[in-house]
């Protein structure tokens, strides 16, 4: 069928998080991409003094049948809803036939308690992108938070991208140890991830919010090779035509070595969790840069022009950007 051949390529989907209202007098279910003020704080509730309500005084009769459910929101802080500025796959909007085909792949994803699923996502092919702030929320102690995402939803994710930030104040060894522990916490939640991407640099143009600044397809976020972008562009420039000492070498991104993990420690933690009844995968790792499809196309065009002009073939020292773990070479027993 023609619509099946028109299915778009896998996407990188960034999430936006929204705190959902926990007021007892607010709606029980709200759209996660809308700011819904508490009715009491918004002076929409009788006898309101303009402050958030945390008591049962003066509850509206219409709220009595659901107040026990709503009251739970007071106990669980940091209730989140999710949305995304990733473009809705166009096949969902063309016609009934295309929508039927696309709906087999793209589902409304990432519902959470008290919020609706707002984001279309292909669990098998799309990559979920988490910001450093979302990562920090995900690794908080269990007593301090509910999970960043419902486990029933997180376990469906097959491809995950994480924007870790190197800690300049910590030694390389300490930072590596801490990040390994953090990564284990994340993989415990996203337990079925098969492909994990570590974003070494956010090279999105300024003005992008969560990876997008417009609805154009070429501004969709993509994962690009973990190289020194500025050095490569300088090498491609015409000014370097007669002084090209790089000879086509694409230098590795400096953050690549700063964002390392202890794989043996990670697998040891995994086997300990398995022994305690928490099973999670050890995925294939890769290190990439986050940029746009437009920049990727421009870079590839400049690279091709450079190779034709100089006769040099662009290359990297070795494939340090990808790692497939052989668990037989690690710890076989907890």
TrEMBL record:
<feature type="domain" description="2EXR">
    <location>
        <begin position="1"/>
        <end position="128"/>
    </location>
</feature>
<dbReference type="InterPro" id="IPR045518">
    <property type="entry name" value="2EXR"/>
</dbReference>
<dbReference type="Pfam" id="PF20150">
    <property type="entry name" value="2EXR"/>
</dbReference>
<protein>
    <submittedName>
        <fullName>3dbfa0db-e5cf-4050-9980-ca6a4f9e33dc</fullName>
    </submittedName>
</protein>
């Amino acid at each position: 069928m023609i619509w099946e051949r028109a299915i778009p390529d896998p996407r990188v989907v960034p999430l936006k998080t929204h705190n959902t209202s926990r007021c007892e007098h607010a709606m029980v279910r709200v759209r996660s991409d809308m700011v819904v003020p508490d009715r009491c704080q918004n002076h929409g509730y009788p006898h309101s003094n303009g402050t958030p309500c945390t008591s049962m005084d003066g509850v509206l009769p219409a709220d009595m049948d659901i107040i026990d459910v709503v009251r739970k929101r007071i106990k669980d802080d940091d209730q989140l809803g999710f949305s995304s500025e990733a473009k809705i796959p166009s096949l969902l909007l063309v016609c009934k036939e295309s929508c039927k085909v696309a709906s087999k792949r793209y589902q409304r994803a990432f519902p959470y308690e008290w919020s609706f699923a707002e984001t279309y996502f292909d669990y098998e092919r799309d990559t979920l992108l988490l910001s450093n702030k979302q990562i920090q929320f995900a690794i908080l102690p269990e007593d301090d938070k509910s999970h960043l995402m419902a486990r029933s939803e997180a376990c469906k994710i097959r491809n995950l991208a994480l924007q870790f930030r190197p800690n300049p104040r910590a030694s390389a060894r300490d930072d590596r140890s801490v990040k390994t522990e953090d990564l284990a916490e994340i993989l415990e939640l996203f337990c079925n991830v098969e492909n994990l991407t570590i974003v070494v640099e956010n090279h999105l143009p300024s003005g992008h919010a969560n990876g997008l600044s417009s609805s154009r397809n070429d501004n969709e976020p993509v994962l690009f090779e973990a190289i020194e972008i500025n050095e490569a562009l300088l090498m491609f420039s015409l000014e370097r035509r007669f002084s090209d000492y790089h000879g086509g070498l694409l230098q590795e991104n400096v953050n690549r070595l700063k964002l390392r993990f202890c794989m043996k420690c990670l697998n040891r933690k995994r086997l300990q969790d398995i022994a305690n009844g928490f099973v999670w995968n050890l995925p294939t790792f890769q290190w990439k840069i986050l940029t746009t499809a437009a920049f990727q196309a421009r870079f590839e065009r400049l690279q091709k022009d450079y190779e034709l002009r100089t006769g040099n073939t662009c290359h990297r020292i070795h494939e340090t950007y990808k790692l497939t773990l052989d668990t037989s070479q690690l710890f076989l027993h907890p």
